[in-house]
Design goal:
- Helix content is 52%, strand content 2%.
- It contains seven helices and two strands.
- The protein has a two-stranded antiparallel sheet.
- Helix 3 packs across helix 7 and helix 6 crosses helix 7.
Length: 160
């Protein structure tokens, strides 16, 4: 049979097949979302000082962080955390450094222990908030970082 006599599919058939394949892929990806209920989708809880029975103060944030740290094998003491918090933020969970080299590079240090976003994300501890201004999350992530880098937050005596 000559090439002119052979059956050729129209171009739109190829496009239609591709669209169908893409649509099927999107459907398969959406199935778990469609099947999820609000109860099953919201099973994670975020640890806070008050949810652990501590006051919503610097003392409570440190004690809650120490409890989470103990559950995750992260070393540190109340005194080591307190000393570093006072030096870094004076106890202000919303402190932000907009003037140092990190800030000039576009990633200012934030929170009680002045952690930059990439460090917070890398050393975030599960069960805590993903908000770097959250006191328990900030302390716990910073202590996790200090443990990996210096052995413990207790070994940190200056900017880290």
């Amino acid at each position: 049979m000559s090439a002119a006599a052979q059956h050729r599919r129209p171009a739109r058939s190829r496009i239609a097949r591709k669209l169908a394949a893409v649509g099927l892929g999107a459907t398969v990806l959406a199935l778990p979302v469609i099947g999820a209920t609000s109860a099953s989708a919201a099973t994670t809880t975020t640890v806070t000082a008050t949810s652990l029975g501590y006051s919503n103060t610097l003392d409570g944030w440190i004690r809650a962080s120490l409890q989470v740290m103990a559950q995750h094998g992260i070393p540190g003491s109340y005194n080591g955390i307190y000393r570093n918090v006072i030096r870094e933020s004076s106890g202000n969970p919303y402190a932000i450094n907009n003037w140092d080299s990190n800030a000039l590079a576009g990633t200012p240090s934030k929170g009680l222990l002045q952690v930059i976003d990439p460090t917070f994300a890398a050393y975030h501890v599960s069960g805590t908030s993903y908000d770097p201004y959250d006191p328990v999350a900030n302390i716990t992530a910073a202590c996790n970082y200090a443990a990996q880098r210096y052995g413990s937050i207790d070994n940190v005596w200056g900017a880290y």
